[in-house]
């Protein structure tokens, strides 16, 4: 059997390694508390489940969906963008449904990257940006995210021969794993770069609805000129506790959306219609319910930041996202610190290097465990002597 080279070329998915470690401990009867994976513990809201039930009884929803999504779903996305960001979208040409943002992110490279092309990819970052590039035969140029640069890539440091070969650039704010947010001037710089180098700007905004202290993350499409060069990826996963249902959308420049639709319509058959109906109900949830949910995460954020600071780690409160990103104490590597923590406290955190080499020196903690588990973990951390 000849397995294609790209299969072997994929680095191990970091979460597979995390799951393996948890399983090994659990097999020994150990109660591991995991801050590893960003998968909300909170349930899908009841109104969204009601919509699924109702839609599941409607026979037309039992048939193949269209790849681009139901007109009603795309209309609801456009309404949501107007309400949330004051951005007007044409649901016909500027919106496409996704089987979760991951699917769209993976397929986007197929639409814009060919052998010899470069994708500009943040490091540390969500691994699918570079894996999609690899599958499309392109090469990733890693843009380091560093604290000194507010975790935004230094676009002036990208060599001219790289930017000349680049066809896409990935950005992700609120950011996984650093929890950083980006402001208008940073986005404006990226738009200017994309125009100058004829690069498609892919903005992954999957965490835009998880924010603290009243902060409201921006859409890149709120910034002047974005629509000429940009597509934005969204996910209902984190916004509405719907990771298991697989629903997201890409919005923005119609040419980019059409290219993505062509790839998708030849690779998948779209999102089940009943699940799109869930999305329509989700985007109609009152703002108050979303802020109540965010308050739960915010309480957890306080507990986690406090416990880490007490241990001597350097950590700032993230303004958004599900993640606390903390610098490990002197003398530790990310992996060394995480391994010792797991061995001695049965608390699992992700080493920053799971998200790229520039994640060295940091660990990531996800706020998606129950309050009870979280309090237990905080107790373990506070009685740990390193
Ligand atoms: C930055 C980022 N983008 C995209 C995704 C995938 O989202 P979805 O569940 O919609 O596929 C994740 C999931 O963890 C993520 O962290």
Walkthrough of the structure:
- The strands form 3 sheets. The protein has a 7-stranded mixed beta sheet, sandwiched between helices. The chain has a 4-stranded antiparallel beta sheet with strand order 9-10-13-12. It has a two-stranded parallel sheet with strand order 1-11.
- It has helices at 5-9, 14-27, 46-56, 71-85, 101-112, 128-135, 160-165, 184-197, 226-229, 236-239, 254-267, 273-282, 287-310, 334-345, 371-382; strands at 33-34, 95-98, 118-123, 139-144, 166-172, 200-204, 230-235, 248-252, 314-315, 323-327, 347-348, 350-351, 362-366.
- Helix 5 packs parallel to helix 6 (128-135), helix 5 (101-112) crosses helix 11 (254-267) and helix 13 (287-310) runs parallel beside helix 15 (371-382).
- 49% of the residues are buried.
- It has 386 residues and is of the alpha/beta class.
- It is built from 15 helices and 13 strands.
- It has 2 domains: 5-44 and 287-382, Aspartate Aminotransferase, domain 1 (Alpha-Beta Complex); 46-282, Aspartate Aminotransferase, domain 2 (3-Layer(aba) Sandwich).
- Bound molecules: pyridoxal-5'-phosphate.
Give the structure's gist in a few sentences.
The chain is α/β, with parallel strands linked by helices and 386 residues long.
């Amino acid at each position: 059997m000849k397995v294609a080279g790209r299969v072997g070329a994929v680095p191990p998915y970091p979460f597979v390694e995390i799951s393996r470690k948890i399983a090994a401990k659990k097999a020994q009867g150990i109660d591991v508390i995991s801050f590893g994976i960003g998968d909300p513990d909170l349930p899908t809201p009841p109104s969204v489940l009601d919509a699924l039930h109702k839609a599941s009884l409607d026979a037309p929803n039992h048939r193949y969906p269209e790849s681009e999504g139901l007109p009603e779903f795309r209309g609801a996305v456009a309404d949501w963008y107007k309400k949330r960001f004051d951005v007007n979208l044409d649901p016909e040409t500027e919106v496409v449904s996704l089987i979760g943002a991951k699917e769209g992110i993976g397929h986007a490279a197929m639409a814009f990257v060919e052998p010899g092309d470069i994708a500009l990819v943040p490091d540390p970052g969500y691994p699918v940006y570079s894996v999609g590039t690899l599958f499309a035969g392109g090469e990733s140029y890693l843009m380091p995210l560093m604290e000194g640069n507010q975790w935004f890539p230094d676009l002036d440091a990208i060599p001219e021969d790289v930017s000349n070969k680049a066809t896409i650039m990935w950005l992700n704010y609120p950011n996984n794993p650093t929890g950083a947010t980006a402001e208008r001037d940073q986005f404006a710089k990226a738009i200017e770069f994309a125009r100058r180098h004829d690069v498609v700007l892919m903005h992954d905004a999957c965490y835009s609805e998880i924010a603290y202290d009243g902060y409201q993350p921006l859409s890149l499409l709120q910034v002047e000129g974005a629509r000429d060069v940009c597509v934005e990826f969204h996910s209902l996963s984190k916004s509405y506790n719907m990771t298991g249902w697989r629903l997201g959308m890409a919005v923005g420049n119609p040419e980019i959306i059409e290219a993505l639709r062509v790839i998708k319509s030849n690779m998948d058959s779209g999102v089940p219609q009943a699940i799109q109906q869930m999305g329509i109900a989700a985007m109609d949830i009152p703002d108050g319910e979303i802020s109540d949910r965010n308050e739960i995460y915010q309480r957890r954020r306080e507990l986690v930041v406090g416990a880490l600071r007490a241990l001597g780690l350097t950590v700032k409160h993230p303004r958004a996202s599900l993640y606390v990103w903390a610098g490990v104490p002197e003398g530790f590597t990310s992996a060394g610190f995480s391994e010792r923590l797991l061995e001695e406290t049965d608390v699992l955190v992700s080493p920053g290097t799971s998200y790229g080499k520039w994640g060295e020196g940091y660990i990531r903690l996800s706020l998606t465990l129950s309050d009870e588990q979280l309090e237990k973990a905080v107790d373990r951390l506070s009685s740990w002597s390193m």
